[in-house]
Amino acid sequence: MRPIPIGTKGTYSQVILPWHLANQFKDAILPPVFATPVMLLFMENAALNAIREFIEPGQSVVGTGVNLRHLAATPVGQRVTAEAEVTKVDGRRIEFKVIARDEVEVIGEGTHERMVVDLPRLEKRLATKAKKRE
User: Fold this and answer.
1) Segment holding 61, helix H or strand E
2) What is the model's pTM?
3) Rounded to 5, what percent of the chain is helix, strand, coil?
């Protein structure tokens, strides 16, 4: 991984589609509003976009922590934009401040953590786990 400057930002934006809604993504008893897990997905995508250019070949990043508040409901058809800003880099661990907005207001905020991983090492570990399962 190349050095990542504090303050590096990334975004992810998409119009909310029917399958992004809580009543379709999770359970029909829920209201037809943007689902919290999908908001987290948008925030994770923004974090990845912030650091993508700093990741070396043979490396990737995985989510390792999140602290999130969903503040307001968003209906289908509105555009949601998530932004992630690097707040701390500690070795392979990267911390972000994350925020999401719809066309009217801030709908979510929190923190997110990602860890840089070595892909060959991860693949070996997954193969070992798969063999143990057999």
Assistant:
1) strand 59-70
2) 0.92
3) 30, 40, 30
Which member of 70, 74, 83, 113 is catalytic? Answer: 70
Residue 61's beta-bridge partner residues?
Answer: 116
Does the annotation mark 81 as catalytic?
no
43/94 Cα distance (integer angstroms):
14
111 is an active site residue? no
Tally Cβ neighbours within 10 Å of residue 100: 27
Which residues, other chains included, contact 22 with Cβ-Cβ below 8 Å and sequence gap of 6+? 30, 31, 32, 33, 34, 35, 36
Count Cα atoms within 13 angstroms, Cβ side, for 100. 35
Whole-number pLDDT of residue 54: 97
Examine the residue annotation and report whether 70 is marked as an active-site residue of this protein: yes
Cβ atoms < 10 Å from Cβ of 30 = 13
pLDDT digits 0-9 by tens, 2-39: 999 999 999 999 999 999 999 997 889 999 999 999 99
